[in-house]
What we know:
Blueprint: H1 15-25, E1 37-39, H2 67-76, E2 81-86, E3 88-91, H3 97-100, E4 112-114, E5 118-123, E6 131-135, E7 143-146, E8 151-156, E9 164-168, E10 171-172, E11 186-189, E12 194-198, E13 200-203, E14 206-207, E15 209-214, E16 231-235, E17 241-243, E18 249-253, E19 256-258, E20 278-281, E21 288-290, E22 296-300, H4 312-315, E23 325-327, E24 336-337, E25 349-353, E26 360-362, E27 368-372, E28 375-377, E29 400-402, E30 408-412, E31 415-417, E32 434-435, E33 441-443, E34 449-453, E35 456-458, E36 461-465, E37 476-478, E38 484-488, E39 491-492, E40 507-513, E41 524-526, E42 533-535, E43 541-545, E44 548-550, E45 553-554, E46 561-563, E47 569-573, E48 577-579, E49 589-591, E50 596-601, E51 609-610, E52 624-626, E53 631-636, E54 644-645, E55 651-653
Parallel strand pairs: 1-2, 2-5, 3-6, 4-7, 5-8, 6-9, 7-11, 8-12, 9-13, 10-14, 11-17, 12-18, 13-19, 16-20, 17-21, 18-22, 19-23, 20-25, 21-26, 22-27, 23-28, 26-29, 27-30, 28-31, 29-33, 30-34, 31-35, 32-36, 33-37, 34-38, 35-39, 36-40, 37-42, 38-43, 39-44, 40-45, 42-46, 43-47, 44-48, 46-49, ...
Antiparallel strand pairs: 15-16, 24-25, 40-41
Amino acid sequence: MIRSRASIRRLALPAVLLLAIQVMAVGVLAAPALAATSQVNSTQDSPDTNPGDGFCRAVVDPTTCTLRAAIQEANAAAGADVIGVPAGDYHLTEEGAANDGDFVAGDTGVDLDVSGDTTFSCDAGKTDPPNCAVFADGQDRVFDVHGDDIQVAFENGSSNPDGWWWIAEGSASDGHDENGIDGGGINVRGDRASLDLTRTTLFGNVTGEEQTECEGGNGPDGDPETPDDPCYYQAGDGGAINMAGNGAELVLTDSAAFLNSSGGDISDRDGCGSTRDCFVAGGDGGAIAMNGDEQTLKMDAASEGDFFSQEAFGSGTNAQVNGSQLVLNRTSGTDTDDTSGNCGGDGCDVEYTGGDGGGVSTVGEASDVELDRSLLSFNFAGDAFFFGGSDVPDGLGGGIAVSGDHTEISGFKIHLGGISGDQDEDESGTFGNFAAAGGGLANTGTHVVVKLTSSDVLKNNAFGSFESSAFGGGGVYNGGNDFLLSLDDSSLGHASESDNGPDDGNHAGGFFLVSGSDFSASESYPFGAGGGVLNEGEGMSLALDSSEIAGNSSDGSGGGVFNSGDAFDAAMVDGSSIDQNFGYYGGGVYNSGRNATVLAKDSSIDSNDGSGFNQIGAGSGGGVYNDATNFDLALVRSSLDGNAGYYGAGFYNEG
């Protein structure tokens, strides 16, 4: 329901009373239309006969009230409106501004435009499946919400607890309207606007893309004069949802975003000739893009119960959820030899680079992200083999990417990555997120705070190359200054409790191209840093309270933690641990930043392994490896035991 508004009760007014009200208004100052309460009774797509007259009557049949007609009446009415929608499949077909009620010049799409406070209530009844599903069928985005201070909500309003919204197959292509290429499913444009989704799935939505330049672009409309010159495109942000205004708020309660992409719709790529290559920069936020200052994103659960089972994604049915989930979203398209005619018709090559934030991207300053009992799993920041692309992703933050300063992220009982095998015996939800840097989370903003309580960051992968802007940090990557990562009763990686069980750690790997050495320049070798955490910024603080960094691995240095930034401070208290990690240098902790401190109080740095060999040489510093000046390692009632290293099993110092 819309918050901070008087609740709207559904009133069925007799026709005589309605007529009396209309007569009384004649000859008096024109009063604004009352808030609308409409009950949709048809799955057809047809506009309203006379928006603003207070009656939802579709052009196709005046006895029917379609979803589009109801929205037009709501837009024309004052106050907060309620639209009741029966379960069914709603396919959008009407085109043009006259048919969607937004009166935006140049809008020729089929999207549903919402410009007033509106609650969409799904009346599932006894329908099977109990879904209120709205499909744009790849023709346009599904909903375009525009207006300052607007409040829009989707809810299950029936007695059937299984009632569910589906917002699906939207495409924010540049060719459909002039409202931009962002927000494939829902685009929210307005300061202080709010979007509240309860029991809602956003599925299969994709952003658009626009041409930015073409080499040799001296021809008509900037197109190249020669057919072999490539063209460059930029994809939009927010495959499922884009929040564009300052002070905007997005709330997901027991909701999901699945298989959305900010990789671009190639249907309107007209700049490419028959042999011309296209290079597309993926947008940010495969599922959600928060693109304004002082925004708020909340993902939470309606009850205090246990976490959900995500069996829905295997069966195509509604999930029995208690919490929200972002799964299998991505920030790029697919490398392909396109022979469909979308890229010139004769097989030109389409190459993508990934945007940031496979699940969520937040770029504005002073924003808040509040995650409660939610899952972000198997999301990709950049192209990846799973989608038919290249072997390595090339974006930052597989689960979450933060680039705005003064952002705060809090998580309570969340799974950022896969679910531990110790918790989930049937192996569901076991895949983590993928990125070039920061498989779980990547930060490049300053003064950013991330606090996780009773949460897991598991099975994420940072698998990049030197062509990536950064790579490493299987669980968390930080490239910004004054960053705080706080873990309370949480796990960043988890070592198996049995000898034969798999670890649930995070992994940093990639390709290190060797040049000017005894190795052939054409050879590549696995390389990476910071299986659990990679920090490259100055002034980072890592705080562990009854928490663990365990079971992580790196193809390079720092199996648990890798730090190269100055003034790094790590504090471990009350039974915290950096245990059973693997890295060639510094199995537990690797430091090359000046003025760094590692303090362990009633904690452990045990059973880490830095004894391996790679192309650089033999591993060293099984527990801790230091390669910088002014490094302090303090152990208070703590242990540094059982570590392995070719040199310095417990502690190796070159500073």
